[in-house]
Design a protein that fits this description.
It is found in: Endoplasmic reticulum membrane. This protein has about 230 residues and is α/β, with parallel strands linked by helices. It is about 40% helix and about 15% strand. It contains 7 helices and 6 strands; from the N terminus they run αβαββαβααβαβα.
Length: about 230
């Protein structure tokens, strides 16, 4: 076989591989999704980002709140406030996960030590979701209501430790289930006994903030860079 034919074959294989790669990749999403437990401050935070005091603000969200948000370059994206109740949250996440480019996990840092297990289980369900994994969104942990609360660094440590435990308990529970029911995305590194956010393929940041007081500059900057 001549050198020219070999080169042509190699070229065609490379082109075919590149086409398969790009067509297999999901389109980049255009939504920023706010998730968290009830009373974490998601709706208040989104309202302040939109500079609305009344129209968007509700006591408890029972349906996703969706609003257009203009970036500095005049590009518009969607901010989606997902309800905090378990039964409502799951269905809402299923609806919007195919269009997500960023996830903001809003945490009530005044209650995180009591709620850390529930927050970790919520985060585990997001990070091991196959569709979300393929979308590879950025993740922001928003340590909300920072007055007299623990720091973002401490919250990171609490979540990493709790996610390590959740990963073990979920793995033990799933060993007795059928293969089709198992979590297809492993959280973190398989050869590591402890979980770290740095193990994830997505970029993870933690910022302290206060939606109630409108101290959201770090959140605005993150949204701008994410979109």
């Amino acid at each position: 076989m001549s050198v020219e034919i070999i080169a042509l074959v190699v070229f065609l294989l490379v082109v075919a591989s590149l086409c398969a790669f790009f067509y297999a990749r999901p389109a980049k999403g255009n939504d920023i999704v706010f998730v968290g437990l009830q009373n974490a401050g998601k709706t208040t935070m989104v309202s302040k980002l939109l500079k609305q005091e009344k129209d968007f603000l509700t006591a408890t969200s029972i349906v996703p709140n969706v609003a257009s948000y203009k970036l500095e370059d005049s590009k518009k994206i969607q901010l989606i406030d997902i309800p905090g109740a378990d039964r409502l949250r799951f269905n809402a996440i299923q609806k919007f996960k195919s269009s997500v480019c960023g996830i903001i996990l809003v945490i009530n840092s005044e209650k995180i030590q009591k709620e850390v297990r529930d927050v970790a289980e919520l985060l585990f369900s997001l990070l091991t979701d196959e569709k979300i994994h393929r979308m590879n969104p950025r993740l922001l942990i928003a340590a909300n209501q920072q007055d007299c609360a623990i720091s973002g660094v401490k919250i990171t440590e609490l979540l990493e430790n709790e996610l390590t435990l959740v990963r073990k308990t979920q793995g033990a529970a799933l060993r007795d289930t059928n293969d089709d029911e198992r979590v297809s995305v492993y959280l973190g590194k398989k050869n590591s006994d402890s979980f770290k956010f740095s193990d994830l393929p997505m970029k993870v940041e933690v910022h302290e903030c206060s939606g109630k007081e409108g101290k959201l500059d770090a959140i605005r900057s993150w949204i701008q860079s994410c979109a």
